[in-house]
TrEMBL record, chain A:
SUPFAM superfamilies: F-box domain, RNI-like
CDD domains, per the entry: F-box_AtFBL13-like
Pfam families cross-referenced by the UniProt entry: F-box, FBD, LRR_At5g56370
SMART domains: FBD (SM00579), FBOX (SM00256)
Organism: Noccaea caerulescens
InterPro entries named among the record's database cross-references: F-box-like_dom_sf (IPR036047), F-box_AtFBL13-like (IPR053781), F-box_dom (IPR001810), FBD (IPR006566), FBL13/AtMIF1-like (IPR050232), LRR_dom_sf (IPR032675), LRR_FXL15/At3g58940/PEG3-like (IPR055411)
Superkingdom: Eukaryota
Protein name per UniProt: Putative FBD-associated F-box protein
All copies of domain F-box, residue ranges: 22-72
From TrEMBL, chain B:
Protein name per Swiss-Prot or TrEMBL: SKP1-like protein 11
A Pfam match: Skp1
GO terms of biological process kind: jasmonic acid mediated signaling pathway; protein ubiquitination; ubiquitin-dependent protein catabolic process
Origin: domain of life: Eukaryota
């Protein structure tokens, strides 16, 4: 508590009421107070019943439930509370149903009843015009996972749907006219079409986040939405053991933001992404040190080329070194399609193989700002990629090099030289140092200033604040 | 800012924690949509009259964020020669509300608006309650959600009932026996 509040508390306890301290919170009308309480977990809302007589029964009128499975001492008490709560004002509108397993350990012996209970509760709230349904399970070695009832597919009031570790059934028809946010975390589907139809059945969908699971029964994920603004796709973490290729196809003309983090999907098919502004790209098209890029694999080359063409309206991009590597290998067979609209790029390297970057930079003819980040990777040898002849960088104005290589000053100097020698209009190059090298800053700066600069007005700065 | 190294994260727990970290640390970079406003080709000026007699002239694009005002504009009988009367809003509060509406009508990224909102609600409790009541009367859903969330956060930050009472000056009118009884009834929530 800050000073003012402490003064008030002391004054209250001594029985001395300061004139203008009115209890405006309790004075709010019921509906507004319930609106406030809707943002607090149910456990805390129930606790508020002891504040004063005005608050004693208010918790029953809050139009929503936000419970964690660990809130109750045992499962049966949890069930009876939820049933009791849903029995209050059973005709009235309920805005929110949120269950979350916040402790990531199996705390209860889940019986068959849990699946039936959740189904029953969801059906009850769907009839009461619920807007937000969040069921976040955390199943560990459980035979029966919760299956969401298919009535969820035709809920006219639903605005946001967030699910984790549950099963979504095959829809007969999908009509979700108000859903704006869908968040699916390791959810299992009946098949490819089920997920595709869910997405297409939401005519005002704005944000879609999918965190994949290797057993989710989806091989080809199609995202077709005329309204979608933001799409986040995090691939499965286990290796794809199936023979079939994994595909993600995106057709979203209004999409502005896309996050792709997936090393198992074989191809990303992009169409109609003319509004794309920002892209976070950490994909490898299922190539790795085990599954090397084969120059004779025309299909893979097609996939990569079409992908780059498809994202070409992007203005701001984050790219991982694994993706750069895939593009670098591709570039040795074919010319990389240009990203004419890209003006800002952040590249993250988990090793010192920054030399893949120049090839990529050549396909960004309008790049203005570049940030490079490195994380220490012990034992990694400097790259086997040929340095080659590097082109000029005629539009680059700002370069930031963050957390550079420790114990490899030569590589660091080489990197800085590359930018200083090739950038014709560079305005500022900033080198960020790790805190333990802070003392060396003036020495390093002096050395960098001796490197010949193509752009005479360029400023070189050595900084110790680690923000990119 | 970090990228997941898939081969390293085999355990379910690690994946989930990392995934959450990644997602929370990145900014959603899409621009604000003003699609809910009924924009006319030429922006008209609307005059609002507060309960304490002051007049405010604002663009209709800003005024229309209030559903109440939107309905008043559509209803010919509502306006007087002095503009639209707002019986429940004082001039102090209305000027703050207009500040909010102006910012949310401008083109700004979601991230920028969130930062602005966080600063906007750093005011004393009395003002927040005034804003809740005004946002409710004027039917401005964004402002109502923001101010209610602010109060909810203050409640949630309190350790126990005593602290909530102290923060909001709530007088405890229970006898110790009554309070004890209540705590027993909902025992699970106090553990």
């Amino acid at each position: 508590m800050d000073e003012d509040e402490e003064k008030r508390v002391r004054a209250k306890r001594s029985g001395d009421r300061i004139g203008d301290d009115v209890d405006r919170l309790s004075d709010l009308p019921d509906n507004l107070l319930c609106h406030v309480l809707l943002n607090i977990p149910t456990k805390d809302v129930v606790k508020s019943s002891v504040l004063s007589k005005r608050w004693r029964d208010l918790w029953r009128d809050v139009p929503g439930l936000d419970l964690g499975f660990g809130d109750f001492p045992d499962y049966n008490e949890f069930v009876s509370f939820v049933d009791r709560f849903l029995g209050f004002n059973c005709e009235s509108r309920l805005q929110k149903l949120k269950f979350e397993d916040r402790c990531l350990e199996l705390k209860y012996e889940w019986d068959e009843p849990h699946v039936a209970n959740v189904t029953r509760w969801i059906n009850v709230v769907l009839k009461r015009k619920v807007q937000h349904v969040h069921v976040l399970e955390s199943t560990w070695d459980v035979d029966k996972e919760v299956e969401i009832p298919s009535t969820v597919y035709t809920c006219e009031s639903l605005v946001s749907l967030k699910l984790r570790d549950v099963i979504l059934p095959d829809p007969e028809s999908v009509s979700l006219p108000c859903v704006k946010v869908i968040h699916l975390d390791e959810v299992k589907f009946a098949n490819d079409q089920a997920l595709e139809r869910l997405i297409s059945g939401c005519s005002v969908l704005e944000s879609l986040t999918i965190n994949r699971n290797v057993h989710d029964n989806v091989k080809v994920l199609r995202v077709c939405s005329k309204s979608l603004l933001s799409f986040t796709h995090v691939g499965q973490c286990e290796e794809n053991i199936n023979d079939e290729d994994l595909v993600v196809a995106v057709d979203a003309p209004r999409l502005e933001y896309m996050w792709l983090s997936d090393h198992e999907t074989d191809s990303f098919i992009i169409s109609n992404l003319g509004s794309l502004v920002k892209l976070h790209m950490d994909v490898t098209f299922n190539l790795s040190s085990q599954k090397r890029f084969d120059p004779n694999d025309l299909q893979k080359r097609n996939v990569i080329r079409k992908f780059l063409v498809g994202i070409s309206s992007v203005k701001d991009m984050d790219i991982a070194s694994e993706t750069l590597e895939a593009i670098y290998n591709y570039s040795r067979c074919e010319r990389v399609p240009l990203l004419r609209n890209l003006s800002s790029l952040r590249a993250y390297f988990s090793d010192y193989r920054w030399e893949m970057l120049p090839v990529f930079l050549e396909s960004c003819p309008n790049l203005k700002s570049l940030s490079l980040g490195f994380s220490k990777s012990p034992g990694e040898q400097p790259s086997s990629i040929l340095p080659g002849h590097h082109c000029f960088l005629p539009t680059l104005e700002y370069v930031k090099i963050g957390k550079p290589m420790i114990d490899d000053e030569e590589a660091e100097t080489k990197l800085v030289s590359y930018f200083l020698e090739k950038s014709t209009v560079l305005k500022k190059l900033t080198l960020f140092l790790n805190p333990d090298r802070k003392k060396e800053a003036p020495v390093i700066l002096k050395k960098l200033l001796t490197i010949p600069r193509l752009s005479t007005s360029c400023q070189v700065v050595v900084s110790d604040t680690l923000t990119l | 800012f970090h990228f997941l190294s898939r081969s390293q994260s085999n355990s379910l727990t690690t994946t989930r924690v990392l995934y959450k970290e990644i997602h929370n640390s990145t900014a959603h970079y899409f621009f604000r949509r003003i699609s809910s406003l009924k924009l006319t080709k030429m922006s008209k000026k609307i005059v609002l009259k507060t309960s304490d007699g002051e007049s405010f002239e604002i663009d209709d694009s800003i005024a229309l964020q209030s559903e109440t005002i939107a309905h008043l504009i559509g209803d010919d009988s509502a306006s007087t020669s002095n503009g639209f009367p707002l019986a429940n809003v004082t001039s102090n509060v209305l000027s703050t509300v207009i500040e909010y509406c102006k910012k949310h009508a401008s083109v700004a990224s979601e991230e920028e608006l969130k930062k602005w909102d966080a600063e906007f609600v750093k005011v004393d409790d009395s003002t927040i309650f005034d804003l809740i009541l005004a946002a409710n009367y004027l039917n401005i859903s964004g402002l109502l959600d923001l101010t209610c969330q602010t109060v909810a956060d203050k409640i949630a930050a309190c350790k126990d009932a005593d602290e909530i009472r102290a923060t909001f000056d709530i007088e405890n009118d229970f006898t110790p026996e009554e309070e004890e009884e209540l705590r027993r009834e909902n025992q699970w929530s106090f553990q």
